[in-house]
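note to self — DONT lose this again. spent like an hour looking for the file last time. sequence + predicted structure for the chain T wanted, 630 res
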Amino acid sequence: MKRNDWIYILGIAAYSFLFYEQSAGLNFFIFTIFIVVALGAMRPAAIKTRHWMVSAILALASGFAVYLNSSALSIAANISALMLFSAQSVLPGSSLIVSFFLSACTAGGAYVFMIIDFFERRSSKQAVDAPPKEKRNAGRMWATIVAILIVIVFFALYRGSNVLFKELTKHINLDWISWKWCVFTTIGAVVVYGILYVRKIGGIGEGSEQYDRTLKPKEQDGAAPGWFDSLMQEETERYLATLLLVLLNIMVLFVNGGDLLFMLGEQSLPEGITYTSYVHQGVGLLVINVLLAMLLVLYFFRGRLNFNKGYKLLTILAVVWLLQNVAMLFFTAARNNLYTEMFGMTYKRIGVYFYLLLTAIGVLTTVVKVMQKRTNTWLFRINTWLFFSVFVFSSLVSWSRFITWYSLYKSDYVNRAYLSSMSYQSLPYLVDLNLHPEKFSQKELNEDYDTSDDVVHMVDLMMSRNWGRKTEYSVRLYRRIYDHLGSTRNTDWRSSVYHSDRVADELKAMKQFGKDKVLFLEYCETNSIYYYQGFANIERIEFGHSNLTQVGELGRYPNLQEADLSYNLLDSLNGIEKCQKLQWLNIRGNEIHDFSPLLKMPNLKTVQVPNPNDSRLDALKKARPDLIIE
């Protein structure tokens, strides 16, 4: 076997070990590091190219972003960056479009390419007489792999047929070997193959790094005049370009002047104009305006005017106009900032900033194109790389945490319903809002919750039991806190996420999450109840319709008086006797075999059981005649 074959086998092993039954986290970053090292070892010549290094940095940054945040944005960025990097390892310097096309084609047909490559390698080995030693080593490698697989199969059979042998080997755990794992690993073999062996398809992308970056005169380039050149004479076109750029510069100067006066003045809008229309309408039309400006500049500076005697004046006018467009983008960003200060930060408003940022990048690269006489091909390629870099590095930021922080502490408007939908990274700030509402009393609060979510039935239950709708925010918050703490508690190191663990540590250090007494955890789908000191003042727990198999740490809640554990998978009540203040208990829908722990609960007044006539309750009825059993 060759070195690349060993790298491929290691890649399959890494994929299976890091991702089987795991969620996105540290495993993505480790796998990305492996891919970068592997492709560097397989194609050392590509390391010397600038595009390979840049794509490697983007891949590593996106993998690190998954470890930081594990957001959908970071995962998408990492997958995209790995596709780009694998293609750049085969065709360094190819454009992003070509790279993604080759990667997508290879990934989609990897299982076919694996078969084709296998038979091609077999035929090439038969055509060329290999040295006997090489053939012998290759045969021994495959024989070793087959022998190991057969030994594992017989090991499992012997353990199943011999109790003594099973006892002797009880510390050897092979439970992970299953049909599910085999299918997963097989898929991993295809995925890894698609990453490590990107194929060149029909010469696509070959030689694309040799494109012309700088414009040349037609006579020097040897090319015939283009169609646009035949529309008007060169001097006429120069006159038109000069006149247009002068007039457009004057117009944009007035536009920017008005925005500047607005920003420096009282910032009051004319009657009938809202901030929403002022910002949103301005952004849409502005971007269209800037794109048209770029297209106009690209038209005039496509070729011959770059070598005309009036080029210097045209360059100055064009650069000034483009920079004035950048100023327009800045003023629009400032308006968007005023809007967010009044109505809070959202994902859409962050999207506006990125919209403006990418447009500004496009304008500035157009300025470079004009000043340095670059080709339109150069402009397109540099912008795609810059746009993709913004996409990757933006995934490093915890946007939900930033949105929550900004909305609570920097804006005049707090939408608690919207903030409660943020990711786990916002939880410490939401706890602050729940514990200290007086800190935000000067802000306008909005609590229009989405009535389509899975907590609607909880609201109806709250109202029927007179808990009060005012606790809805707390109940939603408590549920999210419990889910997050439970998930981090059961997370393997391969799925660990930096911000997730950090937020969990912050929450565990808190002594209180709020003043409400109800912890609603129905349909929580966990097999045990955990204790967290922030819930220490809870008096009632709703934990019905879950997958509870044990009461767990329920007894550690010092003030618990009511517990609904109905319709779970409980067969034992061991540990419930520690809830010495418990007065009401619902255990309907469970297969309880022993009710004796209830004898040790003197304050229990009412218990709802699967079957009140069950003979196993006789001892309890005799010892506690005052206990209401329903």
